Amino acid sequence: MPGLTAKVFRTYNASITLDAILHEETEDGTLLEKIAVYQRANKEVAIICNHQRAVSKSHDTQMTKLNEKIDELKAQINELNKDLGKVKRGKPLGNGADGKPKRALAPEAIEKKISQIETKVEKMEMDKKTKEDLKTVALGTSKINYLDPRITVAWCKTHEVPIEKIFSKTILAKFGWAMDVEPDFRF
């Protein structure tokens, strides 16, 4: 094929792989799950293009801090569940960790707090898994240089994912030409 360069081949290979993975693996789910699918697809492309990086020196520290935060939140959930049981039985809540009496809350308010913290834990667990999976892969290189941005834009439109969750403002400005693509675009 005349004019075929390694860059053109890598771009084609990366784009066709991203398009195929996104269309095979994306299911209805939460926004976080959809973003995780995109990141996994981008990871596969980065692996194909051999975009590697060294594990950052702070990776272990970051993971430890993340685990500590998750443990703290789980402890809060346990405490709130105990308080919920006491409130439902009509017993006083007692004192908090600071020695002051706990504020009496309605059971619905406590359940809402538990739900919010559980959502936070779920997000942090997903972030932790993603961070661990992507510690040796450089995603930015493939996203900026080798993937056709129309694939990402069409996927975001189809699956109602805000494009800002995938592309930074700088990349959005660079790929302004791709933003008008139809949602059913396939590479």
TrEMBL record:
Coiled-coil region(s): 56-90
Alphabetical list of PROSITE patterns matching this protein: TOPO_IB_1, TOPO_IB_2
A Pfam family of this chain: Topoisom_I
Entry GO MF terms: DNA binding; DNA topoisomerase type I (single strand cut, ATP-independent) activity
Domain of life according to the entry: Eukaryota
GO biological process, one term: DNA replication
Sequence ranges assigned to domain DNA topoisomerase I eukaryotic-type in this UniProt record: 1-160
Main EC class the enzyme belongs to: isomerase
EC id: 5.6.2.1
Entry keywords, A to Z: Coiled coil, DNA-binding, Isomerase, Topoisomerase
Family label: Belongs to the type IB topoisomerase family.
Protein name, as recorded: DNA topoisomerase
